[in-house]
């Protein structure tokens, strides 16, 4: 195994799952973040070492790093050479590899759902497997950064893509106490096909995908959204025939008498100094957030009924950009470092 040149001045990082969609986005973001150094990129053990630009040809001459097969034994070799590992892996792989990395004093920023839910008994029901590490579930901090109140520890659990879109849309109303007690938010959200990852599957192949709902009541993001909002929701994800982006439409009932000014104040106050949330005066469009680290939010009120529409790029604010945002904060760097290309970086 080889690592690229290291500098003690920068946060030394690796990406596991760098051949996949969200890991690849993260590798690109890390490579342009002046405060971090991308020291290694890894895929599954069965893969041969391959240049990143062979997997993603648009990065030829921009990101010259090899994607190498990951083996757990590498963790020992990396001790003292790497500060943080970003895991863009299937949930169970993340759960298994995390303690191995932590044991070598390597921080973990996990993009999977392995450490998102605080109630361990929800894993069999919503993830289809029993969680083996209650101590790490307790230790992990869930990093919905706009609402993050506490310091980030060595194990960071990055929120899911749909929960980020829905929670950013509804948290201001919850925190301001504007939702009716008996309100069960109804959330319909449509994701582009990259949400399903890069691996080939008939159901997500281009000619098969139209627009359809799935995951009724049992999608793993439902308990995550409920954990964030502190109330039950009806969450129905949809798959649409576009590459990237999520559009979430959340319908709620407000307390009687809540005014338009109160709603506006709740959103403006919540996101006044939050650089990655944009409050719009028109309905969001996934085309305007695809390729950006933003979550766009808009609402319309009719008496006690409120519709909130939010949009983000599932691979960026819904995954890699949010992971970078959290790691920037964890290591004391500017929150948005690496997230904007060119003059905004
Ligand atoms: N896609 C999205 O919109 C979002 C994804 N996420 C989460 O990020 C994670 C990755 O998702 P995504 O990028 O879509 O997935 P992909 O299927 O595109 O990529 C998965 C990556 O993980 C690697 N991998 C799989 N198993 C192992 C293993 N046991 N050891 C080492 N590497 C392994 C794969 O390697 P190889 O290519 O060699 O098989 C591949 O590089 C998931 O947990 C997902 O839930 C989070 C938010 C949004
Ligand atoms: C379109 C599609 O299949 N989307 C995925 C969610 C995206 C993802 O990978 O989930 P996390 O955000 O939890 O990591 C799904 O419904 O399972």
From TrEMBL:
A GO BP annotation: L-arginine biosynthetic process
Enzyme category, top tier: oxidoreductase
Catalysis: reaction(s): N-acetyl-L-glutamate 5-semialdehyde + phosphate + NADP(+) = N-acetyl-L-glutamyl 5-phosphate + NADPH + H(+)
Pfam families, sorted: Semialdhyde_dh, Semialdhyde_dhC_1
Molecular function per GO: N-acetyl-gamma-glutamyl-phosphate reductase activity; NAD binding; NADP+ binding
PROSITE patterns, A to Z: ARGC (PS01224)
Domain called Semialdehyde dehydrogenase NAD-binding: residue spans: 12-155
InterPro entries found in the cross-reference section: AGPR, AGPR_AS, AGPR_dimerisation_dom, AGPR_type-1, NAD(P)-bd_dom_sf, Semialdehyde_DH_NAD-bd
Subcellular location: Cytoplasm
EC number from the UniProt entry: 1.2.1.38
Residue spans crossing the bilayer: none
Pathway: Amino-acid biosynthesis; L-arginine biosynthesis; N(2)-acetyl-L-ornithine from L-glutamate: step 3/4
Active site positions: 161
GO cellular component: cytoplasm
Main location: cytoplasm
Keywords noted in UniProt: Amino-acid biosynthesis, Arginine biosynthesis, Cytoplasm, NADP, Oxidoreductase
Its biological purpose: Catalyzes the NADPH-dependent reduction of N-acetyl-5-glutamyl phosphate to yield N-acetyl-L-glutamate 5-semialdehyde.
PANTHER family for the chain: N-ACETYL-GAMMA-GLUTAMYL-PHOSPHATE REDUCTASE, CHLOROPLASTIC-RELATED (PTHR32338:SF10), N-ACETYL-GAMMA-GLUTAMYL-PHOSPHATE REDUCTASE, CHLOROPLASTIC-RELATED-RELATED (PTHR32338)
Name used for this protein in its record: N-acetyl-gamma-glutamyl-phosphate reductase
Source organism (scientific name): Rheinheimera salexigens
